[in-house]
Design goal:
Layout lengths: L2 H10 L3 H15 L5 E4 L4 H12 L3 E7 L8 H14 L5 E5 L13 E3 L23 E3 L6 H10 L7 H9 L34
Parallel strand pairs: 1-2, 1-4, 2-3, 4-5
Helix pairs in contact: 1-5, 3-5
């Protein structure tokens, strides 16, 4: 991230509007049951939510669905593991689900989710059930903008994924979406940087 962009997000992090959203999200997070889980993708939204939930003592498990190298390059996946290592403290257990092995999650009373209205406007605030676990999902940053997410990340010096630096120069920090490069149903939301929209398409050049 350029010094100018970082400065702009730092300035936004101190505005009353942003601080009010953060405080509201913390109240919603604290209303979640103890022992809740965060589904962590490695993207900016789940990064902010994981940090807030861990710091608030509500996240017992950080659950990550890992992609195989055909979907996501190995270095990108390892960077996600490094993010989890950095954030999963205060008794937060890492749970990785992949094609090789599956950690067994403990009982999950609630999933603390990371949908936002400006990217997921078709979804209700309460969000869908976390179907894989059969529990409800509470989205605590539903009213945040992308600017709010980046302001929170910069203000708290969180280790965002390096893929953002490569893509934001083309798409802009308000538009860049980490999941769009690897999820087949989201490629419509991202622009191609090198003629390709996703890692899985590299064998089709």
């Amino acid at each position: 991230m350029s010094p100018r962009d970082r400065q702009l997000f730092e300035l936004w992090s101190r505005t009353p509007e942003h601080l009010a959203r953060v405080e509201q999200s913390r109240r919603e997070m604290l209303a979640c049951p103890d022992g809740s889980a965060v589904l962590f993708s490695g993207g900016k939204d789940s990064l902010a939510v994981l940090h807030m939930a861990v710091q608030g003592g509500k996240c017992r498990q950080c659950v990550h669905l890992a992609h195989d190298p055909a979907i996501m390059p190995g270095p990108y996946q390892r960077e996600i593991y490094a993010q989890m290592d950095a954030l999963c403290v205060n008794g937060c257990r890492q749970v990785v689900l992949d094609s090789v092995h599956r950690d067994i999650p403990e009982h999950i009373p609630c999933v603390i989710g990371s949908f936002r209205a400006d990217e997921n406007g078709r979804r209700r605030r309460g969000g869908p059930d976390a179907k894989a676990f059969g529990v409800r999902c509470r989205h605590i940053i539903f009213d945040w903008t992308a600017r709010d997410v980046w302001a929170y990340i910069i203000a708290n010096d969180l280790p965002y994924h390096s893929a953002y630096d490569a893509r934001a120069a083309v798409e802009g920090w308000d538009n860049v979406r980490f999941s769009a490069y690897f999820a087949s149903d989201l490629t419509q939301y991202t622009a191609a940087v090198d003629g390709l929209t996703a890692w899985r398409d590299r064998g089709r050049r």
